[in-house]
Design brief:
The complex is a heterotrimer of chains A (767), B (81) and C (231). With 767 residues, chain A is α+β, with helices and mostly antiparallel strands. Chain A is built from 26 helices and 28 strands. In chain A, 35% of the residues lie in helices and 24% in strands. The longest helix of chain A is centred in the first third of the chain and has 25 residues. Chain A is globular. By secondary structure, chain B is α+β, with helices and mostly antiparallel strands. The termini of chain B are close together. A three-stranded antiparallel β-sheet of chain B has the order 2-1-3, with helices on one face. Chain B contains two helices and three strands, in the order βαβαβ. Chain B has a single domain, classed as Mth169, Chain: A. With 231 residues, chain C is of the alpha/beta class. Chain C has a single domain, classed as Class I glutamine amidotransferase (GATase) domain (Rossmann fold). Helices cover 23% and strands 24% of the residues of chain C. Chain C contains five helices and eleven strands. A nine-stranded mixed β-sheet of chain C has the order 2-1-3-4-11-10-9-6-7, with helices on both faces. In chain C, strands 5-8 form a two-stranded antiparallel sheet. The model of chain C has no long low-confidence stretch (mean pLDDT 97). The chains are: A alpha+beta (767), B alpha+beta (81), C alpha/beta (231). At the A-C interface, helix 8 and helix 10 of A face helix 1 and strand 6 of C.
């Protein structure tokens, strides 16, 4: 075999590929002392990019708990898999598409959804739900923030683009979108976060892995043709943004949801033939990544011929073909002699399926172009031997006061109706109806809990009594104030949301969005976050089965808040016992179930600085996130599951952003059932009682007759169960120690809550 | 030979996209604008097997039967050697 | 008595309709592949929701040329029962089985939410289990559901009482606010002159089980089963 591994590598080229001089030396060593060819340099640059190699994060990620008796597949595959009983398993994962979504919001979001869906069905699972965690810069003038009109404009158009991208892809593909979260903070102005989650169902004995095997077996390329799109997408996601980034627009890939739908049906059908040995999608780093990873996992090699790869454009060379990130493509290994069974299925669905290479015995990735070898790299050099950095850490303090500023006075007002209304209409709390109404959340007819009202999305599993609950949560502001505690809260809240529906949380996936890891304070934030996730997941017995790390989320040197986003999945044994988040009828008792002890006035003031109230109403940020007793949190979640099992609660809704007053209000909106409650002050200022965001609290409603049993159950778990009042028709009234502090109608608050986002967007026609 | 086919909504059909763009332009302070209508544009590359007359007939057929819905849309096209 | 559910490559509500017929209505049902002319002796055909062939050109624009639609056209001409849901309605209009067209929503966005529709005529195989004036809560999920037809067609639809569903308030008033997509006269569903073909934008299969939040949509399937038994 002839080779064309001549090198023309200059220091300039090395730099352009984001490879350091030390890394280049290592490449030469791994290649047995020779210089790489240009194609090889390109391959190393994408596989060794932060995005693909996790070179900065890997040493820390190892600390995460990844096992339980239910985990069938942990991190390292396309998605994690959990055993959910009755022979069923669910595959799920969350992944970021932040950088592409900033450069071209619509396409960036579509390809983000497309990528995560392929990760799921490449494992043999049919996607049954997606969710998204979205973060943008402010879309309206915010108190205390210096956001220019031009930035608001830009944020608005990014939001519009991302939401319609998510909608267009998922709606056409035919997977329900169960919501997620949409948050706004100034730090995301130049760096929006688009984290897409997907979950699929698979029979336990029909899981597929991304592993090549069987020397001589054909390697088959299926799906869309390869074009020049997205070349170096993975390296782009591993750099900070500069003003020149916008010029990178042509790099952005374009998604085709219809093709993906065909690919889904064809792949699942082809898997049924039994002729497929292994399969992996071509995501970041396209053909390169799938080729070397499948070989490495199977301890074999893959040889592919460029001339056979279906191409959309003419004149593409090996470098471009290997690095292209064209969407909707898969690579699979079939059993020799049974190729035709695979081809028949893809032909039925009108898709390209072409043999592009074969499995070889050497643990090597070999690329041929016009019969010559243009790249020959040991698989390990691209995977296990990729650089791993123990980057320096430096303890970091956010530049905010820890004590409450002196100019702020709590407890000086005696009516908070207007503040409650304002908070309900604030961007982070208001209804995201404008977002999720653009998503088909009902297709597949499994949606029991739609987005909007609920803390978690809930889908039934057809043919079984079970249901799956899922929730995404994260709080960047809290992680900024205290990365470890903030990360623990993210786990606790996502799991609590799942538990509110009555489901037992059984697994999690994480998307870790951070700034530049070469800066020691950022790396410290990352390390702290991992410690927090580890602690919370261990205590709550929720293994992390996979996820994604997105670093370099900085524009012009300005980093985002450290933002871990957690996706937690739970199992509800009987779908008919699902607990709704909203009040059902008037005349029921309202109980605050809480694991946390109310602190003293000084603690309350310090923690209050991290609340939405401080941000929105006071325009200030100080202090620490609320304290979290993770053992009490675990007890609370167990109690919620037992409450549901016993059918004792008519509704359960988590107290989170905006605190108790917001949680009560949100519970009232769906059915128009209001409430009358009286809170004991215990010496705390009214703002803290109404709006503080203490952890481990859930508002439940129940029949008066169930009260004593609920209190017994709470006592068993060491929780407080304080009766606050009762549900009433249409009215909202909150008293503190018998004195009225909020008095209004459900309708007034609901209008403020539901119309706020639409109003903010309408006043600003995108240009 | 290339065929350029323009498809637009009939005048009698409401064009919400055009209206929205017009509204945005107005807000930007654009002057002298009376109306905006949005449509679709198709570029067909013919393989050279047809003469001009045949090409015209074929393109018209494609435009009428496939590219437009006659209930709401109309089309025009041009050919270029 | 057998139902057939069409599958185009981009159909995504095909399995939902199948499930409702098989598991809720407990009727025999089979899938019909788009490339086949064979309707397998089905007595009623469902054209399900989704994105038929990607719908990049226009919704349903390519589907009308499919082999299966050729057979459906003949089947309908012979009086066969055809129910088009959402994308199915769009395909039936494109194919000329129903008049008019479904254009981009006035709000320019995809809208997924439960809506209220008023039953305008119960003298059809699809609504005989309803009363005129009943208000049904059934979800919609579409980007192109804005029904349009010319004046003479509209006059004809009205004269022949072929407007079957209109978007309404919960109490049954026909108002602009109740119209989710800008449809002419709040039209949510119409039928053919022979009343054997119905197209509707709302998804009755999404409102056929109480676990999913409501069963109003099941009245359509109930009606069909009744009509088929009576035939």
């Amino acid at each position: 075999m002839t080779t064309a591994l001549d090198s023309v590598i200059t220091p300039e080229l090395i730099r352009e590929h984001g490879i350091t001089p030390d890394e280049y030396e290592k490449i030469k060593q791994l290649l047995g002392g020779r210089e790489p060819s240009l194609t090889e340099l390109g391959i190393f640059s994408v596989m060794w990019s932060e995005h693909c190699s996790y070179k900065s994060s890997r040493v820390h990620l190892k600390r995460l708990p990844t096992h339980s008796r239910r985990v069938l597949q942990g991190p390292g595959e396309n998605a994690g898999i959990i055993d959910i009983g009755d022979g069923w398993a669910c595959a799920f994962k969350i992944e970021s598409h932040n950088h592409p979504s900033f450069i071209e919001p619509f396409q960036g979001a579509t390809t983000g959804v497309g990528g995560i869906l392929r990760d799921i069905f490449t494992m043999g699972a049919r996607p049954v739900a997606v969710m998204d965690s979205l973060r943008f810069g402010p879309i309206s003038a915010t108190k205390g923030a210096q956001t220019t009109q031009a930035e608001i404009h830009k944020n608005h158009s990014i939001l519009e683009g991302v939401v319609s991208g998510v909608a267009s892809y998922g709606n056409c593909f035919g997977v329900p979108n169960l919501g997620g979260e949409t948050k706004f903070e100034p730090c995301y102005s130049g760096n929006p976060l688009v984290n897409a989650f997907a979950l699929g169902l698979v029979r336990k004995d029909q899981i597929f892995y991304a592993k090549a095997a069987g020397v001589g077996n054909p390697v088959i390329y299926v799906g869309a043709k390869t074009g020049r799109d997205g070349i170096h997408g993975a390296t782009m996601a591993s750099e900070e943004f500069s003003e020149a980034s916008e010029a990178k627009r042509p790099n952005v890939q374009v998604g085709d949801p219809f093709l993906e739908k065909l690919l889904l049906e064809a792949c699942l059908e082809a898997m049924q033939t039994g002729a497929i040995v292994g399969i992996q999608d071509m995501g970041a780093a396209g053909l390169t990544c799938s080729t070397c990873e499948m070989g490495a996992r199977g301890k074999v090699g893959v040889e592919i011929e460029m001339d056979r790869v279906p191409q959309r454009e003419t004149g593409m060379n090996a470098y471009e073909i290997m690095l292209s990130e064209s969407q909707e493509r898969m690579l699979l290994v079939a059993q020799k002699g049974r190729e035709d069974e695979v081809y028949r299925v893809f032909q039925k669905w009108g898709l390209d399926a072409v043999e592009v290479g074969r499995v070889i015995a050497e643990n090597t990735m070999r690329v041929l172009e016009h019969g010559k070898v243009v790249a020959e790299i040991p698989n390990e050099a691209l995977t296990d031997d990729a650089p791993v950095y123990k980057r320096p850490l430096a303890r970091w303090e956010p530049p905010v006061a820890r004590e409450m500023p002196e100019n702020i006075q709590l407890g000086s007002s005696d009516d908070f109706t207007a503040q409650l209304q304002q908070l309900l209409a604030s961007p982070n709390i208001c209804s995201k109806r404008w977002v999720w109404q653009q998503y088909d959340h009902m297709v597949q007819t499994n949606t029991v809990e739609a987005p909007g009202a609920g803390d978690a999305g809930l889908i039934r599993i057809k043919g079984s009594n079970r249901a799956l609950a899922m929730a995404l949560d994260g709080n960047g502001r809290w992680c900024y104030l205290d990365p470890k505690l903030g990360a623990m809260h993210a786990v606790a809240e996502a799991a609590r949301n799942v538990a509110c529906s009555g489901a037992t949380p059984v697994g999690a996936t994480n998307c870790l969005n951070f700034g530049n890891p070469e800066k020691p304070p950022i790396m410290w934030q990352f390390s702290q976050t991992i410690d927090g996730l580890t602690k919370a997941c261990e205590e709550l017995e929720i293994p992390i089965t996979g996820g994604n790390v997105s670093l370099y989320n900085e524009t012009l040197g300005e980093g985002i808040y450290p933002t871990p986003v957690l996706g937690v999945v739970g199992i509800l044994e009987d779908v008919h016992k699902a607990v709704r988040p909203d009040f059902q009828t008037a005349g029921q008792a309202i109980v605050l179930l809480r694991g946390s002890e109310p602190g003293d006035a000084t603690d309350a003031e310090i923690e209050f600085g991290s609340s939405e109230y401080a941000k929105e109403i006071l325009g200030a940020l100080w202090g620490y996130p609320p304290e979290l007793d993770i053992e009490k949190e675990a007890a609370l979640q167990k109690a919620l599951v037992e409450l549901a099992e016993a059918g004792l609660a008519a509704s359960a809704h988590d107290c989170s952003d905006g605190g108790l007053a917001v949680a009560l209000s949100e519970s009232s909106f769906v059915q128009g059932i209001g409430f009358k409650v009286d809170i004991k002050s215990a010496g705390l200022p009214a703002e803290c009682l109404l709006f503080a965001e203490d952890a481990s609290r859930v508002v439940i409603s129940c029949d008066q007759a169930s009260l004593s049993r609920i209190q017994q159950l709470a006592a068993k778990y060491g929780l407080a169960a304080e009766v606050l009042g009762e549900t009433v028709s249409g009215q909202i009234e909150i008293k503190i120690d018998g004195r009225t502090v909020v008095s209004t109608g459900v309708e007034e608050l609901r209008n403020a809550y539901e119309g706020a986002l639409e109003t903010a967007l309408r006043t600003e026609v995108g240009v | 030979m290339k065929a350029y086919v323009y498809v637009s909504l009939k005048k009698s059909v409401l064009d919400p996209q055009g209206k929205t763009i017009q509204g945005a332009l107005k807000k930007m302070g654009v002057k002298g604008l009376a109306d905006v209508r949005q449509g679709k544009f198709f570029e067909l590359t013919l393989d050279g097997g047809l003469n001009r007359g045949e090409a015209e007939a074929e393109v018209a057929r494609i435009a009428r039967d496939v590219l437009t819905n006659p209930v709401i849309e109309e089309f025009r096209f041009s050919l270029e050697e | 008595m057998k139902f057939g559910v069409l599958i185009f490559p981009g159909s995504n509500c095909d399995h939902d309709a199948f499930w409702t017929i098989q598991q809720v209505a407990k009727q025999p049902v089979t899938f019909l592949w788009h490339e086949s002319h064979d309707l397998q002796n089905c007595d009623a055909i469902i054209v399900p929701g989704g994105f038929s062939y990607g719908d990049y050109l226009r919704t349903g624009a390519i589907a009308k040329f499919s082999p299966v639609m050729e057979s459906v056209r003949k089947f309908a001409d012979g009086g066969g029962l055809v129910l088009g849901i959402c994308n199915g309605f769009q395909i039936l209009c494109e194919s000329g089985l129903l008049p008019g067209a479904l254009t981009r929503n006035v709000g320019l966005k995809y809208v997924c939410k439960p809506v209220h529709v008023r039953v305008e005529n119960n003298d059809t195989p699809f609504t005989n289990a309803c009363r005129v004036g009943d208000v049904l809560t059934i979800p919609i999920g579409h980007m192109d559901g804005n029904y349009f037809c010319d004046d003479s067609t509209l006059a004809e639809l009205k004269r022949d009482q072929r407007i079957i569903f209109r978007y309404a308030t919960p109490s049954g008033e026909i108002t602009e606010d109740a119209n989710p997509n800008g449809s002419l006269e709040n039209i949510a569903g119409i039928c053919s002159p022979g009343r054997n073909v119905l197209g509707m934008m709302p998804h009755p299969e999404r409102a056929s089980e109480s676990e999913l939040g409501g069963t109003d949509g099941f009245r359509i399937f109930e009606s069909l089963v009744g009509a088929m038994a009576a035939r």
